[in-house]
Each structure stands twice: as structure tokens, then as C-alpha cells.
Design goal:
The protein is of the alpha/beta class. It has one domain: Ribosomal protein L13 (Ribosomal Protein L13p, Chain: A). It is built from five helices and six strands, in the order βαβαββαααββ. It is globular, with a radius of gyration of 17 Å.
Length: about 140
């Protein structure tokens, strides 16, 4: 019996909808990252993008445990001297709540070129409405 390796031409991606309201950020990110990578499929192949699309709604209502809301910070660097800036999670939640989930999921994907393509399958929305109703995403 030969080992089955998926080909990108044979993969037909599905759409999934995850409601982030009241869910812990890390556990939500693991669930989303595994679906995006295709780890939930029996045809999972590490070097082929066999994953599905994930739509996450209510990103502004995701929960952080412990004191992470006050202590954790995101660091950005412009590339110029003195171009470092630090923003707290509380500030990011007010201005760009989708970034918190995208950043967490990105950290759980492999660090290679396929991961950049996989990350385009993640659609995050701050509120309860999303623009992917036509794809009929399956609610998880």
C-alpha cells in the first residue's frame, strides 16, 4: 500500500464560521490554525495547503486569562532608528481587534512560504456581521 499525498489540485476547501465571543484567545487560535492547515482532514499533507477557510466573528469579545489584558504588549518596528513602538492589548482591542486573533493564529502556523498563503484563508471581523454569507460557512 502506498502512502497518500494530497495534491493542491484535488483539495476542495470548505468554509467554517467561529464565534469568538467568550472564547479564550489561545484555544480559539489553535482551533483556527488547525483548520487552516488542514490538520482536521484525513488527507492532511504537511507540504501541501490542504486547509479550509475560517471566518471568525466577534473578535472584540475574545477573552484573555490572567493579567494578560494589562501585561502583554505588541512591539512594532519601522526599520528606522528609534522607530520602535509598543502597544498594549487593551489599546489594540479598541483600535484593531482583528489583529489580536490574526497575530495569535499566525504564530501557530509554520514559518515558511506556505504559511503566508494559509493566512489568507483567515477572515476576522470585529462585530457579529461578516461578508462571506454567500460561501455558506459551517458554524463550529
Amino acid at each position: 500500500m502506498k502512502t497518500f499525498l494530497a495534491k493542491k489540485e484535488t483539495v476542495k476547501p470548505n468554509w467554517y464560521l467561529i464565534d469568538a465571543e467568550g472564547q479564550v484567545l489561545g484555544r480559539l487560535a489553535v482551533k483556527a490554525a488547525n483548520i487552516i492547515r488542514g490538520r482536521h482532514r484525513p488527507t492532511y499533507t504537511p507540504h501541501v495547503d490542504t486547509g479550509d477557510f475560517v471566518v471568525i466573528i466577534n473578535a472584540d469579545k475574545v477573552v484573555l486569562t490572567g493579567k494578560k489584558e494589562e501585561q502583554n504588549e505588541y512591539m512594532f518596528f519601522s526599520g528606522f532608528v528609534g522607530g520602535e513602538s509598543v502597544r498594549s492589548i487593551k489599546l489594540m482591542r479598541e483600535h484593531n481587534p482583528a489583529f489580536i486573533i490574526k497575530h495569535a493564529v499566525k504564530g501557530m502556523l509554520p514559518k515558511n512560504r506556505i504559511a503566508a498563503k494559509m493566512l489568507t484563508k483567515l477572515k476576522v471581523f470585529a462585530g457579529p456581521k461578516h461578508t462571506h454569507e454567500a460561501q455558506n460557512p459551517v458554524k463550529i
